[in-house]
Amino acid sequence: MSNITVMPDRSAGTPATPAGRERRRQRRPRKPINTQFRTAVSPHQLNTTRGRIIYWIVLVIVVVSFTAAFVFPLYWMVTGAMKSTEELNAIPPTFLPSHFSLDGYLEAWDLLGLGTLLGNTALYAGGAWLLTLAVDVSAAYALSKLRPALGKVVLALMLSTLMIPPMVIMLPAYLTVKEVPIFGWNLLNTPWAIWLPAAANGFNVFLLKRFFDSIPRELLEAAEIDGASPGRILWSVVIPISRPILGVVSILTVVNVWRDFVWPLLVLPDSDKMSVSIGIASLSSQMPQNVLVASLVIASIPTIVVFFLFQRHIMAGLTAGSLKG
């Protein structure tokens, strides 16, 4: 008969069973958890009554201060046009007009011919917007989905233009518009002098390409199986789901053309074809100060309207395509 040696249990009386091992683990002293917060105020302090009061006071002060810093210049401009020239130049300044009057706005509209200037600028901005969408969307779609030969080289050359200061290429661009290579056309005093440079925007192509890269390839392949051509896929599939980024490109294009000053001053010397920024600057020395301020308010209204129309697409379009899931 063989001798069987039974090893004693080390648990000091606790049977060597799963329940016993669990009880041994529970008896072991646990190390204290050292919770560290990398913030100026810990969440425990914020949960107190004093912490909540301080938090809301700081939040309100910061929000009100930043809002006032951005809104106050607009408020000063709008109310300044309602004052007389003497009240506008008074020291100390008055925050409210002594007599609310819209005469400054009416004089600005009549004396500066803002109707013609705004019409010209709307023509330039609208044409630049349409041509930009046609050219940049097609280029971005080709680089993203069609992937032609040397596509990466073309994209790199487009992005390299963003590293060049605009003033450096001002003279070559002017000479190109004055006499278009090969064709020999003179585009000065024509809307094409504004439209063509606006459409040649590498930043817009980059934004659109990043968004198109996030579109699933399977979606386009399903359209190809149904017999859709690349142009049909772009028009019926890609553009409808690209509204956020198209809104961003639209607002950037319209605002850039509307507020541009140096380039329209070079290529639109005719007074009948001036944009609103050039027209106001050319007549500013002959106008009373309150009328000048009123003209600036009227000229800024269209860009504000465009912003409110496309504001919900701005953040959605800028962040679209940054993550793929």
Description:
With 325 residues, the chain is an all-alpha fold. It has 2 domains: 43-105, no CATH class; 111-319, MetI-like fold (Orthogonal Bundle), CATH 1.10.3720. It has 16 helices and no strands. The chain has helices at 18-27, 43-46, 49-80, 85-88, 103-111, 114-146, 151-160, 170-178, 192-199, 202-213, 217-225, 230-238, 243-259, 262-267, 276-283, 289-319. Helix 5 packs across helix 16, helix 7 packs across helix 10 and helix 11 (217-225) packs across helix 12.
Keyword list:
325 residues; mainly alpha; MetI-like fold; 2 domains; 65% helix; 0% strand
Report how far apart the termini are. Answer: 69 Å
Question: Can you tell me the CATH superfamily of the largest domain?
Answer: MetI-like
- Rg, Å, rounded: 33 Å
The tally of structural domains comes to 2
Transmembrane segments: 53-76, 122-143, 155-174, 194-212, 233-258, 291-310
Domain ABC transmembrane type-1: 118-310
GO biological process, one term: transmembrane transport
Protein name: Carbohydrate ABC transporter membrane protein 2, CUT1 family
In short:
The chain is mainly alpha-helical.
Question: Any chance you could write out the topology, listing elements then pairs?
Answer:
Blueprint: H1 18-27, H2 43-46, H3 49-80, H4 85-88, H5 103-111, H6 114-146, H7 151-160, H8 170-178, H9 192-199, H10 202-213, H11 217-225, H12 230-238, H13 243-259, H14 262-267, H15 276-283, H16 289-319
